[in-house]
Amino acid sequence: MTMTPEELLRAFHARNVEYLRLGHDRLAAARFVVDAAIELRGPALDVGTGKGLLAIELARRGLEVVSIDVDDQERGLARLLADDAGLASRITFEDGNAAKLPYADGRFGCVAMTDVLHHLADPHPVLREMARVVNVGGILLIAEFDEQGFELVSRVHRAELEQDRKLMARATAKFLVKGCM
Known about the structure:
- With about 180 residues, this protein is of the alpha/beta class.
- The protein has two domains: about 5-145, Rossmann fold, CATH 3.40.50.150; about 150-180.
- About 50% of the residues lie in helices and about 15% in strands.
């Protein structure tokens, strides 16, 4: 079942509420990561952009951003969120493999990633590519979950799984009741 853009945004915001309930503000986390960089120069590359929260925060700082991710659905949601934030014109969303970046050496003033390393079987090719495309004096900005962050994400996923199980149980019960009539 394909969700409409409005449904995708609602689902994102609902999940964000769950993160907030557990004490994690994903938008503030992106701000914190960008604030950690002393002086940012563009253009910026966001590697493994996911939902685009880091790309959006970099664009808020006035940078032109190239956002790369292999997941079509994540890129689609990232585009919606960037548009919702009024920043879509500052961000170019591209499909691509971070281990083989299609950019010239030294192309970017800032190359960033957040919460991507744990998705990679071997992060070395990606890190080499990031170092290759950042220009001399540029910034590599890398942030990753700590153990508490991984536990928080696990709690959100467990809560969502439990909610899905309850919905399936209700749907099955309705089907069985209708089937018996």
